[in-house]
Automatic annotation (TrEMBL):
It comes from Octadecabacter antarcticus 307. GO terms for biological process: L-methylmalonyl-CoA metabolic process. This is methylmalonyl-CoA epimerase. Pfam families: Glyoxalase_4. Residues 4-134 form the VOC domain. Belongs to the methylmalonyl-CoA epimerase family. It comes from the Bacteria. The lineage of its organism: Bacteria, Pseudomonadati, Pseudomonadota, Alphaproteobacteria, Rhodobacterales.
């Protein structure tokens, strides 16, 4: 069911500083910030040869990453995103296996304009998983 690793997301306390550091210290090509109000974050993608890094910064008062940054003030790896061919079939299989799908369980359009879902970190070894239909 899961395919390629689409991205690794890092929640950052200072988006400009994180972008400048990756560009200067790591020679990365850093994309432009994208506000994603439906998800409560501003994202920046860094394309790598085999996957992407997604910087996350809170957008709005009830951002879902606010709590994470309060617990991890220096930032940290927030989630990993796997690609799937059919996100509804994936959801049904996961629900049948007893996994929790976050939100109202319906896919939302993510930063790449594709449907995404999130699975509770406590059900997957402490790792927040995002699925993106490609
Ligand atoms: C534009 C879309 C973009 C894309 O790629 O397309 C995105 O990726 S949007 C990314 C931001 N959106 C989300 O993360 C949506 C899903 N996340 C959530 O619903 C919440 O963040 C949730 C439920 C994972 C955590 O909620 P909250 O921060 O309020 O903390 P809780 O107290 O409810 O957490 C319970 C438990 O889980 C631990 N936790 C929280 N976040 C993470 C995490 N990222 N990785 C691992 N563990 C996490 C938290 O510490 C609690 O553990 P406990 O042992 O009970 O303290
Ligand atoms: Co993501």
């Amino acid at each position: 069911m899961i395919g390629r690793l689409n991205h690794v997301a890092i929640a950052v306390p200072d988006l400009d500083a994180a972008c400048a550091q990756y560009a200067s210290a790591l020679g990365a090509t850093v994309g432009a910030p994208q506000d994603e109000p439906d998800h409560g974050v501003t994202v920046v993608f860094i394309d790598l040869p085999n996957t992407k890094i997604e910087f996350l910064y809170p957008l709005g008062d009830d951002s879902p990453i606010k709590g994470f940054l309060e617990k991890n003030p220096s930032g940290g790896i927030h989630h990993i995103c796997y690609e799937v061919d059919d996100i509804v079939a994936a959801r049904e299989k996961l629900l049948a296996e007893g996994a929790r799908v976050l939100g109202n369980g319906e896919p939302k359009i993510g930063a790449h304009g594709k449907p995404v879902l999130f699975l509770h970190p406590k059900d997957f070894n402490g790792c927040l998983i995002e699925l993106e239909q490609v």
